[in-house]
Write a structure and sequence with these properties.
By secondary structure, this protein is mainly α. The chain contains 16 helices and no strands. The relative contact order is 0.08.
């Protein structure tokens, strides 16, 4: 079914609509799907197959009220990662507002769910420059330890340097002034810090 959804999304919108309509579980059943690997994988594929209006409806009717729970859920956070990457700009900005209000980026980063922070930053690469600058400010507040203002150090020397490297790679794809904020942080690191970062897989790939 997952493969059929992917193919129909690419080739046949009429078939896609029919499949999504018939196999999307009721909202009351979604938690049961998240209890198993195959069930959560199918939900990810259903989200992939949704059009913009369907994805917004799914967010408004089910995800919005459970965002805090799903952010830290072992399988639900992968569902959110898929939704964030596929979201329209208006839906993503709505999610940003709720994520910031609940302090979820910080909870995810320090709670072992850094992957969703990486997907959040990946999606932010499509925003305009002014909004990307705000995203970097949000990341600094969420990821940095108290008294630390260097985002590059927090990401690449932090507890999850692999995901931190992916976040840096996404920020390198930001627009000029937003990207420069990270570059300035990187160039302010000491030579010993740069050497240590360069010797790690994510760090060497970034440079």
């Amino acid at each position: 079914l997952g493969l059929l959804l992917v193919i129909s999304k690419i080739q046949r919108d009429d078939v896609r609509q029919l499949i999504v309509e018939h196999i999307k579980p009721e909202n009351s059943e979604l938690k049961e799907f998240l209890k198993s690997g195959p069930g959560s994988f199918l939900l990810e594929r259903i989200i992939f197959a949704m059009d913009e209006a369907e994805l917004k409806s799914f967010y408004d009717t089910w995800i919005r009220g459970r965002l805090e729970e799903l952010f830290m859920h072992d399988k639900g956070n992968f569902l959110l990662q898929r939704m964030l990457v596929l979201s329209s700009e208006s839906l993503f900005e709505s999610a940003i507002t709720q994520i910031n209000a609940l302090g979820l980026l910080r909870r995810a980063w320090f709670g072992g769910k850094a992957g969703i922070v990486a997907r959040f930053t990946e999606r932010a690469a499509q925003l305009v420059e002014e909004k990307q600058i705000l995203i970097i400010q949000n990341l600094k507040s969420a990821i940095s330890n108290e008294g630390e203002d260097n985002l590059a150090r927090s990401l690449l020397n932090g507890q999850d340097a692999y995901q931190g490297g992916l976040i840096c790679q996404s920020i390198v794809g930001f627009h000029g002034r937003a990207r420069k904020l990270l570059i300035d942080d990187i160039t302010s690191l000491t030579s010993d810090e740069l050497s240590q970062i360069f010797d790690t897989p994510p760090g060497s790939f970034l440079f």
